[in-house]
Amino acid sequence: MIIFNARLMGKKVISRIIILTITGLFLSSCFGPSGYYKIVNKTKQVKYAELKLNIDDSNIPKKGSGISIDIKPISSVNNQIYPQFRMDVPFHYDVHYTVRECNRYECWNKEKTRVETNALSNVPIFPYPAFEVKISNNTDHVLKFNNTVLAMEDGSGNLYDAMNKKSSKIFVNTAVNKFLKNFGLSAKQIKSAYDASEIYLNQQSISLLDENFKVLPNKTKIGYMVFQTGNYNYNAYEKFLLQQESLDIQLYEIPIEVDQAGKITKTESYSFKFDVGVLNKNVDYKIKVFVPTK
Description:
alpha+beta
């Protein structure tokens, strides 16, 4: 009888070991291996477009003409020094959900709403590429641009008109709406998600080179030329630039002489050709890596 009980106990122990082993294997298959996550620093090479002025193929104001113009491109290579061209946009949206409520006698579904808040980071309030234009007026008359034609021509001959305040508002509304749509908001949610007035104020603080731009006699003023190429985010801007061989910034019919009555007697046209090259930059980034434990 003692021998029988010992054998019986041995079988029970073996059965328990088998059950525990199977349970462990099952839990491992369900929950995966044990371990922890750590942050690893990585580096990758990214291509950026670099714009360089081609003086030989440009028509720049000559010394003694009464005006001087200096143009600097703004793109992904140097946009960090132009923080006024981007901003964070806070937004909110309603989330509708259903809860189950009960009393002593019955249960029912009740519709509720909560407000979620978030923010879009570094939203471009003007498109790239943009150009910083420094104009010195060494004449004795006000330099007005109300009749000047400003354009950008790409390497394929496509022309883009310079944007003004009105078209800039349309651009930034479209850009923010696209960002919010990618975030997952519906068209109905987007309509009331953000306050555009602060964005417009930021735009107004930047002096665009448009029909309202003017430079007083013997003064220097900085304005910005921006062009809508049909793109609304940084990846699209960079893709557009990398497809170009050159960009030609054109300023037509700038009044350099006027008579005593203020009537324009002489105009000049100028162009600034920028060759587009490729700049390879190392970009640091972080990834989360799973480290299994033994």
